[in-house]
């Protein structure tokens, strides 16, 4: 094997999330989750940011998660399509409220367990390894209403019970686990990230960092439990990745970029090293955060992850002069537009070299294997006169990022696998749109939930099949 080729056991695949794909939001005894109350349209962003003191289902609103792409009822056909592409791994999530509808019950919901067991058995039928996220932007709404979600220390025990049930019930079917999806996003999108709502006058930073601490303790605790139940289990953390570049070589810009990177890497520092970083004390002092942290918490945090998983869509740009007028609203993580880079239809910069930079940053910092579990191009796809989708723009985007992965491997970085985001078109988490498509497989559904749900292979489907078959050697 040459120094810039993928290892023979490289895990090629794709990724979805339960709340964006399954639909069937109350089927099989499932309870309401946070994402089930995030509407499409004008109120979406404010809801995600936790700007309302309470959230309820409103008859006039459209909630995309309620139907998703009906993966709940169509997973057998969908997994067969993924197998046709040659997938080695399939990343999905378990909806907590399918297993524990309220989140605080003592007895699990058998119908939910049966659904996921059948899903994972379907994957195994095709020799596809499931990569399973325990909490991917959905918290049972009962836990939000009764406990304030991750404001409460009680959430740790609820999450431990849920995770233990999953580890036991799916033992032998799932060995790759992620605890919390893009854990750093709770700082930027508190309700969608962690089920947090705020009252007027509260110190939001105190609430967010306290919630983050409880999530970090819960993550470390279930990492230990996973290893105890089966030593072959591998548990990873998950970061919304993408380095911040200084907008200029002005020292103040460089310092701001460093601080912005630390803000995102803060959580992974804890999950990978087992303790809070040295700069945490100053961060907490500046934000007037006083953590409820015990010696037992500190001991639990020493249960570190086996690998670092991350998403990469774009790099970011930071300046000491960042403000609401010069930062992009395109992404929930604010950034100044980089004049050297093109952008997607939704304003996300396209920066393959930034992936190589991010991978080097993460490996230099943590010295643990990496797993790129989200990457892709959100774009508008249309059927041509032959009923086909010629998505060369997506192929080009993915090709350049796979080349960047090769370059990072040549830098000496161990990369476990690659699961491009939304391998089947699904509801976009950012906007709630179906028209922001990522997949190799087109789903006939529009932004308001209309359509046949028919699946159609795009040009990228056949391209990615060749990529997998040649272990990343054939990219044309």
Please write out the topology:
Blueprint: E1 11-15, H1 18-21, H2 44-48, H3 71-85, E2 89-93, H4 96-99, H5 110-125, E3 129-135, H6 141-147, H7 154-169, E4 176-180, H8 190-194, H9 204-229, E5 234-240, E6 244-246, H10 251-273, H11 280-286, H12 295-300, E7 307-311, E8 316-318, H13 352-366, E9 370-374, H14 392-410, E10 415-418, E11 441-443, E12 455-457, H15 459-469
Parallel strand pairs: 1-2, 1-10, 2-3, 3-4, 4-5, 5-7, 6-8, 7-9, 9-10
Antiparallel strand pairs: 11-12
What does this structure look like?
The chain is of the alpha/beta class and 476 residues long. It has one domain: Glycosidases (TIM Barrel, Alpha-Beta Barrel). The protein has 15 helices and twelve strands. It has helices spanning 18-21, 44-48, 71-85, 96-99, 110-125, 141-147, 154-169, 190-194, 204-229, 251-273, 280-286, 295-300, 352-366, 392-410, 459-469; strands spanning 11-15, 89-93, 129-135, 176-180, 234-240, 244-246, 307-311, 316-318, 370-374, 415-418, 441-443, 455-457. Strand 9 (370-374), helix 14 (392-410) and strand 10 form a beta-alpha-beta unit. Helix 7 packs parallel to helix 9 (204-229) and helix 13 packs parallel to helix 14 (392-410).
Biggest β-sheet: count, sense, barrel? 8 strands, parallel, barrel
Could you name the CATH homologous superfamily? Answer: Glycosidases
Percent helix, as a range, is: 25-40%
**Helix/strand/pairing class, anyone?**
alpha/beta
How much of the sequence lies in strands comes to 5-15%
The SSE string, one letter per element, is EHHHEHHEHHEHHEEHHHEEHEHEEEH
- Counted up, domains total 1
Query: Per the principal axes of the C-alpha atoms, what is the gross shape?
Result: globular
